[in-house]
Structures are given as structure tokens and as C-alpha cells.
């Protein structure tokens, strides 16, 4: 008998690839310029405000004032955001197929801008397979705040002890464990498949 009934998935770099470099490699002359732009201008710390519910426009405005020479590139962060996601994570659909065949339900919990989630749902089938999804940009709460995990569990109606939480961030995976969930620090689809096997999802291990 399987030890879990449901999987609660992070989305970025679990179901769908995400890296700003995919976009800015198209726009800047070389890898050094890309790395300087992402470490000095559009940093991940700056981007985190989008996950907290701040719009692209509102977040870009003060940054454009500080970096007027990069104003156009800053604006393209929001305008061409989906180009940061060139495809689904390799192998994840096959793992989901096996888990679905075994009877598991799929749900989502993601740190993501509100405006982006509907677009990803249309573009990528693994995202569309999620029954319920909690998006940080909608809730104005981000992982690893325990409140957003509890919200996701309540919305999904799942038992924490029988829910596997999957995230590419170790801190986020550990936060789920502290709330009584089984957790998996995602690195690749094969690793998740192996963990599901250890949880007897595919039969006796």
C-alpha cells in the first residue's frame, strides 16, 4: 500500500524549467554581460517582490530610475517572462503519468507572480494537471512561511502525513517536513521517481 495519497508540487524547476538566463542570453552580447545584469540589476532579490504580489510595472519603475541605461531590459523581465521557461522539466511528465496511474492526486504550491501562473497553465501540460494550486503572488505570502503550506493543504484537502511535497529548494522542502509532510528535495525526475518507489507508490519496494 502506498504511503502517500497526493503530491504537492512546486512548479519552477520541478514541473517547468525557469531561469532568467534563457531570456537575457537572447538580449545581451555574452555570458559575462548576462551574469552582470542578473547580479547587479535584475537580481533574484528584486524579483522576489513579484512572488509577493508586487506587479512587474510597479517593481520595475524604481529600478529603471536607478539603472536608466538598462530601462528596456528591465521592462522585458515582465513582458517576455515566459521565455525564461523554455520547456517542461525533462522526464517529469512520465513520472506524473506513473503516479497518476497509481492513483495519486496532484496539487501545486508555488512562489510565482500572479499574472504568470495562468500563462504557464496554458503553455505546459504538467501545470495543467494540478487539481488545486496556491500561488504566492495571489496570497501575498511566500514559501517558506508555514501559513502558505497550510493554505495549500487546506485547499487540497489532503492529510499532511500522506502528502509528498516536492521542491527544488531545500529550505522549502524542509519547511514542509516541519509541518508533518513527507518531502522531496527535487534535483531531477529520476530522483523523484525513485523516492515514489520507496514510498510504495508503484507497489511493494
CATH topology of the largest domain: Rossmann fold
Radius of gyration: 18 Å
How many strands appear in the DSSP assignment? 5
Computed structural class: alpha/beta
Report the span from N to C terminus. 10 Å
What is the correct CATH architecture of the largest domain? Answer: 3-Layer(aba) Sandwich
> What's the level 1 CATH class of the largest domain?
Alpha Beta
Task: Specify the number of helices.
Answer: 12
Question: What would you say this structure looks like, in words?
Answer:
The longest helix has 11 residues, at 56-66. Helix 4 (56-66) runs antiparallel to helix 5. This protein is α/β, with parallel strands linked by helices. The chain folds into 2 domains: 6-17 and 88-198, Rossmann fold, CATH 3.40.50; 21-84, no CATH class. The chain has a 5-stranded parallel β-sheet with strand order 3-2-1-4-5. Helix content is 47%, strand content 11%. The protein is elongated and about 60 Å long. The mean pLDDT is 97.
Q: What's the layout of helices and strands?
A:
Elements lengths: L5 E4 L11 H4 L6 H10 L3 H8 L4 H11 L4 H9 L12 H10 L3 E6 L6 H7 L1 H4 L4 E3 H4 L6 H11 L6 E5 L2 H9 L3 E4 L3 H10 L7
Parallel strand pairs: 1-2, 1-4, 2-3, 4-5
